Amino acid sequence: MLRLMPLVQNESMKIFRRWRTWVMTASLIVFMTLLSTVQFMDKPNDQRDWKTRLTANIQQTEQMMSDARMGEGQKQRLQESILHDRYAIEHDIPVNERSLWNPVTLGTSLISLITIFTIVVAADNVAGEFSGGTIKLILIRPAKRWKVLLSKYIASLGFALFLLVTVFAASWLLGIGLYGTGALHQPILDVRDGIVIEHSMVASLLQTYALNSVSLVMMATFGFMISTVFRSSSFAIGGSIALLFVGTSIVHGLREYPWVKYVLFAHLDLTQYIKGKPLIEGMTLGFSVMMLLAYFVLFMALSFFIFGKRDVAA
């Protein structure tokens, strides 16, 4: 493992020496700043005190629950909403109020863009060496092929981690600059089995970032595999990005077929289990994790097998 680290460092240096890396980083910060500023300047229509708004919401929800035609499932969700709002009022927790956490929450919407940037870097990390003719110079070194390929993969994920940390840190600083630190220790409320539970806002947001990053890792691995097998960065980038945007829609359209639950794109969004609404009925978190691991092993096995057997002179 120690012999692998110099290779990873070398591949990371290649990534961060390129101007496109810093253009990608700067674009994320600019997008984050614009989104946060627009949200800050967009004043809500309802200017009432937050407790007054929640009290009105509770009264309106109670009226809705009096409808005899309403199903039990919908009534349960409305009852949970009432419990949530009452708890917030009683414990003086200003839920739904804008705070420093709004920009951090907005940052999760940029994970799709980070995924695209990572796909570009991961795909070019291998295919670019073939198209540029530098792969021969790399493979004449004493390092084994699997170590060379693994170092490129780790460096690509390291780049993704760098972008995620950058977005999280930038959004947090923007939140402090725009809203101050008044809500720094504010919890997030969740209702489970009729009981309101307080969660750490930081832990909840980190969980959201982590779960959304599953799609990032899987699609970057897919692009990495395609570039290794076909030696074409354009094909790997274009195909991966296209599937990233249409894959879930295709699965959603075919969700009535039982075999769809074995398709990768049915499992990329693990937040579906937090929301309690799996994309396909009957799927569980454990099943999705198993499917993701199976696809991950398949992608990596193909990458290492093809790269290990390929004639670089071809």
Automatic annotation (TrEMBL):
Keyword Membrane attached: yes
GO cellular component terms listed in the entry, alphabetical order: plasma membrane
UniProt-recorded Gene Ontology molecular function terms: ABC-type transporter activity
Pfam family for this entry, one: ABC2_membrane_2
TM region(s), chain numbering: 21-41, 104-127, 148-174, 209-230, 235-254, 285-307
Entry keyword set: Membrane, Transmembrane, Transmembrane helix
Protein's UniProt name: ABC transporter permease
Classification of source organism: Bacteria, Bacillati, Bacillota, Bacilli, Bacillales
